[in-house]
Amino acid sequence: MKKNKPPTNTLPILRRNKSIGVKYKRELMQIVKNIQNKTRKELYPIIKMALAEYTKDSAIDDLKMKIEELTARFLPIQFMAGSMARRFISAIDRNNKDRFKKQLINSLGVDVIGSDKKLDDLLQLKIIENVNLIKSIPQLHFDKVNSIVYQSITQGIRASEIIKDLEKLGGITKRRAEFIAIDQLAKANAAIEKAIDKESRLVAV
Hints:
Strand content: under 5%
Structural class: mainly alpha
Oligomer: single chain
Number of helices: 5
Distance between the termini: 14 Å
Shape: elongated
Radius of gyration: 24 Å
Helix content: over 70%
Largest sheet: none
């Protein structure tokens, strides 16, 4: 066990690294931005044209096909989601370990943070949880797009109103992504802090 500087009576003020949450939120916002850009560029023109020129059934078929195509475009996100989630959770883990190490060195004069299988299992669970949440952003969005478009056309709603509803949906998706970033940062920090604290107390004893 490596000896460090002698302990002092004053514990350092240890703060969480806010940049971790900021970066994760920025990555999720980029997904939402891509969804909205693709929808505006590729779906809106078809909505306008289909309702102006096609029969109701033909419009529904064409729009359904386009929504399926857009959904498929975001399937590769399952691979990106894995690396995003791992970076996010690993950064939280490192930040918390560093904070606890500084506190333990200051109070005990030694570094007693090691590896722990329970903590590793927790990290894996948090990674899986975030992968599923990231993947759900485009999945849920386009499911709702499909529902809005189908119901609107069958009810004879104008193209401009459909587009207005889809813009509102984009705002809902954006707020959900923001909530995921904030909520997961808080939950992951709390769970990892608790696990590291428990581990450090056991080792210290």
